[in-house]
Write a structure and sequence with these properties.
The protein has a single domain, classed as NAD(P)-binding Rossmann-like Domain (Rossmann fold, 3-Layer(aba) Sandwich), CATH 3.40.50. The protein is built from ten helices and nine strands. It has a seven-stranded parallel beta sheet with strand order 3-2-1-4-7-8-9, with helices on both faces. A two-stranded antiparallel ribbon has the order 5-6. About 10% of the residues have low confidence.
């Protein structure tokens, strides 16, 4: 697997990137902090990732950085089959209610920025594989404006095959959303709204392009013990980054459209979605 990774320097993203490195996947890291990227790259090389693990600047709050970062990754690895997005922002509901600038940053990064980044990734994955059918052609100009230097002719492939005829992974876009987007809940009104929009986008993307060969994997983590959740009271079914990463990697390999991690959150949110509004107004979950 040759994967571009946005968000591999911390938490669940770091745990997932390490698993991929240990099995020999080639990785290209995107992120905001050059020092953090360099440190993460060295760590992944030690763990087995083919050297060098290259990096490029990319910030979900800087849409102008998306295309150059992805172009650099696709050139460096002679094509890419997987793009993973674990980056995002989080803030407590009370903090965002009292700080419009903070709320804007979280909403912009977790919805608008992530969706626009995914759109750039989608175009490039489809272009590398030469994928097209009615769904793709309806999106006129899906690959218009992409430099031919980013996609040299020798890397255009058909999903499931390499140029030599050997098996080749289907193009995959794996994006971390959240269980917070499954139902409007008092503790995560704003954060949950952003993740709800992201989950809806990923579902629509999967409906439109899976028949063309592009697999979309929407990851919905529940409470996971990371720096993002530091200071919050964990529920009884909280997860650890490493366990979540193992579950997500299986979903990527299998192309599952939706994965809850830890697995218990699938059933927790199934129950929450069925609760009537009169009950949701009374509980603090």
């Amino acid at each position: 697997m040759k994967a571009v990774f946005l968000g591999a320097t911390k938490g669940m993203g770091r745990a997932l990137a390490r698993l991929m490195a240990e099995r020999g996947d080639r990785l290209f890291l995107l992120g905001r902090n050059a020092d953090d990227l360099k440190t993460a790259g060295r760590d992944l090389e030690i763990r087995g990732a083919p050297q060098p693990v290259e990096t490029a600047y990319c910030d979900l709050l800087d849409a102008a950085s998306f295309a150059p970062a992805l172009d650099a990754a696709f050139r460096a690895m002679d094509g890419v089959d997987t793009v993973v997005v674990t980056a995002g922002l989080f803030a407590k509901q009370e903090e965002m209610e009292n700080d419009a600038e903070l709320a804007n940053r979280v909403l912009s990064a977790d919805f608008t920025g992530t969706v626009l980044f995914c759109e750039e990734a989608r175009k490039r994955l489809l272009a590398v594989y030469g994928l097209s059918n009615k769904s793709v052609s309806e999106n006129t100009g899906a690959t218009a404006g992409l430099s031919s230097s980013v996609f040299p002719g020798n890397i255009t492939r058909t999903a499931g095959q390499a140029g030599s005829g050997a098996p080749f992974p289907s193009p995959t876009l794996c994006v971390f959303s959240s269980v917070a987007g499954d139902r409007g809940r008092k503790p995560v009104v704003l954060y949950g709204a952003a993740k709800a929009g992201l989950s809806q986008y990923l579902e629509g993307l999967d409906h439109k392009y899976r028949s063309a060969g592009l697999r979309t994997v929407c990851v919905k983590p529940g409470f996971v013990a990371t720096g993002m959740t530091a200071g919050l009271k964990p529920p009884p079914f909280a997860g650890e980054p490493e366990a979540v990463a193992r579950r997500v990697l299986k979903a990527i390999d299998r192309g599952r459209p939706v994965v809850y991690a830890p697995a218990a959150w699938r059933w927790v949110m199934c129950a929450i979605r069925k609760l009537p509004r009169c009950v949701m107004r009374k509980i603090e979950f």
